[in-house]
Write a structure and sequence with these properties.
Elements: H1 3-12, E1 19-22, H2 27-36, H3 43-54, E2 63-68, H4 70-73, H5 83-89, E3 93-97, E4 102-104, E5 112-114, H6 120-130, E6 134-141, H7 150-169, E7 173-180, H8 188-208, E8 217-218, H9 235-249, E9 256-259, H10 266-280, E10 287-292, H11 294-304, H12 311-330, H13 335-341
Parallel strand pairs: 1-2, 1-10, 2-3, 3-6, 6-7, 7-8, 9-10
Antiparallel strand pairs: 4-5
Helix pairs in contact: 7-8, 8-9, 9-10, 10-11, 10-12, 11-12
């Protein structure tokens, strides 16, 4: 894939007000979610759940790309069709999570560094042969007393940039995900300050590593107060703060910003994305889209509970959330959509 093809892929991932479905939970993370609902924590159950997702009728109407995990990209439907082919056949672009997780940083208590650069060039080549056309790497930034430190921010930014450069070398579009976590009692203003610092640092490193910004997508957090902060701003206030922060830190050459949900409820994630597009869509240099995991999947997972008899109902819940988020990309989402679904 040459650079023009990567640019075309990046644009295709957010074309027609569609977004990304992040179904790239690691096995331990997926097992934890299964355990809470009494679902067996085995490969067969994970495969069945992934099949439920990729075979959801009409999913490609709202979803342009699906981020897979190493186990998932190697799995197949019951009839033997690889998941990659099942997605491609309906017009959904397959992608792959390539980091190996966030680990404790030496000398910096409470902070994490994402690992996975070792042998990444070889793994990217393998995934490309399997049909992946884009990749994802997540950096985790914790906001708290005295953190994040510059050491943490700079180390994660450098890793993101090195990953992105390797992706483009392999012909894959990099999804660059620096996430300032929602956990904690920090204010929205504190989140805004840290998010801007993180994004500026990430783009400085991307420039240093000669990453072509037109051939990547940014996947940031929204600017939000901590989950335990006494003051929780309105949907419009969050939208305003998020867009102001992004305008100060994200170059216009980036084609799209696809937000992570980061622990928000499904309805709030949709409402906040919608408010941004209602208020700013016509004025922004980049598209504002979604790359949600729990905010898309959780209602379906809670309905399915590992029971084949619940597959159709779970798929209806998944496509409903996908439609809500596509509507949010158009600035057309409203709470009435939730009432209709109920």
């Amino acid at each position: 894939m040459n650079m023009q093809e990567m640019i075309d892929t990046a644009m295709a991932l957010v074309a027609n007000d569609k977004g990304l479905l992040a179904m790239d939970e690691s096995n331990p993370t997926c097992n934890k979610r299964f355990a809470k609902l009494g679902i067996p924590q085995i490969a067969g159950a994970r495969r069945a759940y992934r099949e439920l997702i990729v075979t959801t009728p009409g999913l490609s109407e709202c979803i342009s790309g699906a981020i897979l995990y190493d186990e998932t990209i190697r799995q197949q439907k019951k009839d033997g069709t690889p998941f990659v082919k099942a997605l491609t056949d309906v017009g959904i672009i397959p992608g792959i999570k390539v980091d190996t997780g966030a680990k404790d940083m030496a000398g910096l208590p409470g902070e994490k560094i994402t690992e996975g650069l070792d042998e990444l060039r070889e793994r990217l080549a393998e995934y490309a042969k399997m049909g992946a056309r884009f990749a994802k790497w997540r950096a985790v930034i914790t906001l708290g007393d005295g953190i994040p430190t510059r050491g943490c921010i700079e180390a994660n930014a450098e890793a993101l940039a090195r990953y992105a450069a390797l992706c483009q070398e392999a012909g894959l579009v990099p999804i660059v995900e620096p996430e300032v976590l929602m956990d904690g009692a920090h204010t929205m203003d504190q989140c805004c300050e840290v998010t801007e610092e993180v994004l500026r640092t990430v783009f400085n490193e991307l420039y240093r590593q000669r990453v072509k910004l037109r051939g990547m997508i940014l996947k940031p957090n929204m600017v939000l107060p901590g989950l335990t902060c006494p003051k929780q701003e309105s949907v419009d206030e969050v939208a305003d703060a998020t867009v102001r922060c992004l305008l100060r830190a994200v170059p216009a050459a980036v084609p799209a910003i696809a937000f992570l949900s980061g622990g928000q409820s499904s309805e709030l994630a949709s409402a906040r994305l919608n408010a941004m597009n209602v208020r700013f869509k016509a004025k922004l240099p980049w598209a504002l889209a979604f790359s949600f995991s729990r905010a898309l999947q959780q209602p379906a997972l809670e309905i399915w509970k590992g029971d084949d008899a619940n597959v159709a109902a779970a798929q209806k819940a998944l496509i409903h959330r996908a439609r809500c988020n596509r509507a949010a990309c158009r600035g057309e989402y409203s709470p009435a959509m939730e009432e209709t679904a109920t």
